[in-house]
Specification:
Layout: E1 2-13, E2 19-25, E3 28-29, E4 34-36, E5 43-44, E6 50-53, E7 59-63, E8 66-70, E9 81-90, E10 93-102
Antiparallel strand pairs: 1-5, 1-6, 1-10, 2-3, 2-4, 2-7, 7-8, 8-9, 9-10
Length: about 100
């Protein structure tokens, strides 16, 4: 059992300005989508953008409600992490997510 908290997100590649970053744990939303005004700029998530999880899974990225990519490495509820980074690969480029996992 653990809690993942999203800290910030950055988009790199061919994303449009003011893209809504909709990062999920599998198909489960972690807070609300956040607007990223331009590529290659870190945007902070609001405090408490967290999700409690009990089984391993991946970060997924959705655009307009449609799945567009996932992080190849899985999160485990048995491993604490601080200021870790995940990379989600999509047809638009990459979404970089900084996060914490607290047991």
């Amino acid at each position: 059992m653990a809690t993942v908290t999203l800290l910030r997100v950055k988009l790199a590649g061919n994303w449009a300005n003011n893209t809504l970053a909709d990062i999920r744990f599998g198909n489960i939303p972690i807070g609300s989508p956040i607007t990223v005004p331009q590529c290659n700029v870190w945007v902070n998530y609001p405090p408490g953008t967290s999700l409690y999880f009990t089984s391993s899974g991946n970060f997924f990225d959705f655009l307009n409600g449609t799945f567009i990519g996932q992080c190849p490495s899985m999160l485990s509820p048995g491993t604490a992490k601080s200021n870790a980074q995940a990379t989600i690969y999509t047809g638009y480029g990459q979404a970089y997510v900084k996060y914490n996992v607290v047991l």
